[in-house]
Amino acid sequence: MNDMKSPARGAILVALCSALVSLPVSTRADDAPKAKSGPFVRALWAIQYFGDDQAAEPRNDGSTKELLAVSLAKDGTLTRKAIENKLMDSETFDKLAGSSDGIAPEVVRNAVNDNVPASRRRLLPEVAAHLDGLTTSFDRIDPPHLKAGELLADWIAANYTPGKELPMIFVCTGNSRRSILGATMANVAADYWGLPEIRCYSGGTAPSAFNSRSVAALKAIGIEVEPTEKEASRGEAGSPNPIYRICWGETGAQGAPAMETLEFSKHYSDLHNPRSGFAALMVCTHADEHCPNVIGASRRISMPSLDPKVYDGSE
Fold it and tell me: What distance in Å separates the CA atoms of residue 177 and residue 228, rounded to the nearest whole number?
């Protein structure tokens, strides 16, 4: 599968799928989650990087955590029970442990830090912290989204080429909430895992406008969303359709993809989006049912989520 390792492959896909359901309900910035990187969490990250394929598989996240809990000593050392519990193969364990009988907490920390992709270090701090938290909650993803993630993983594995853009379009009806949230979080997840080739876009079947609640939700986890003072073509309802600049990271070295994009409501076939060779991710039931064929898509995957508007008018 070219240069994509299995643990990272699985982790980014569940991050992509969980992105739609992991945004905070509150829109206050001070409520954005902060990951707690204690010994257990750092050991869990180490398993995601260096663990046995089955242990690192997101589908097994719950059982992996249970086995990890009994494999950690009170001081945070990862003991040889990790090998017995099939969390890590003996060769990898011995390489990390060195002459010691276990992998000390500081060794785990250094091993994880040494493998952080350069693109993750460019993420805005609050955004990176939110993604850190998502990597500890794969067991909260419901079966339909997990299955959709596995289908998407297969498509990525078959089409991923280092240095070549691999596009996806998140599609909902109005291109106002779920599709924009999904595309944004997918771009963040791709940079978190060091896969800048994955670039995500959004579109709808009946465009309306970028909903203000979506703007607030993205801002709540540290993503910068600012109006450009420009407007795109209006949908059938005639509502204003402002164009926003969305930024989730710092400008990189020359040649590194920018961690920002322009978002506004548009049809999925808009010139702003790729026209062919993309994966179409259907994130609302209506668009999924009424748009069986997405023109230009090389793969169409259903991953509908509850319409956020059912919570309108509440905290």
Answer: 19
CA distances (Å), origin 207, targets 187, 243, 249, 294? 21, 13, 27, 15
Q: DSSP secondary-structure letter at 142? A: -
pLDDT in tens, 176-186: 999 999 999 99
Coil vs helix vs strand at 273: coil
Copy the structure tokens of residue 187.
């771009």
Spatial distance between the Cα atoms of 260 and 11, rounded to a whole number of angstroms: 22
Q: Is the dihedral of CA 255, 256, 259, 264 positive or negative?
A: positive
List C-alpha distances in Å: 313 to 134, 214, 308, 309, 310.
27, 14, 11, 9, 9
Count the Cβ atoms, other than its own, within 10 Å of residue 136.
Answer: 18
Tell whether pTM > 0.70: yes
Q: Mind listing the pLDDT tens digit for each residue in 83-133?
A: 999 999 999 999 999 999 999 999 999 999 999 999 999 999 999 999 999
Does residue 153 contact residue 82 with C-beta atoms inside 8 Å?
no
Question: Are the C-beta atoms of residues 224 and 246 closer than 8 Å to each other?
Answer: yes
- Could you give the CA distance from residue 51 to residue 48 in angstroms, rounded to a whole number? 6
CA distances from 273 to 186, 204, 216, 265 (A): 15, 11, 24, 12
- The Cα-based distances of 134 to 13, 110, 129, 156, 282 in angstroms read 12, 21, 9, 20, 22
pLDDT of residue 13: 53
- Give the mean pLDDT of 32-36: 48
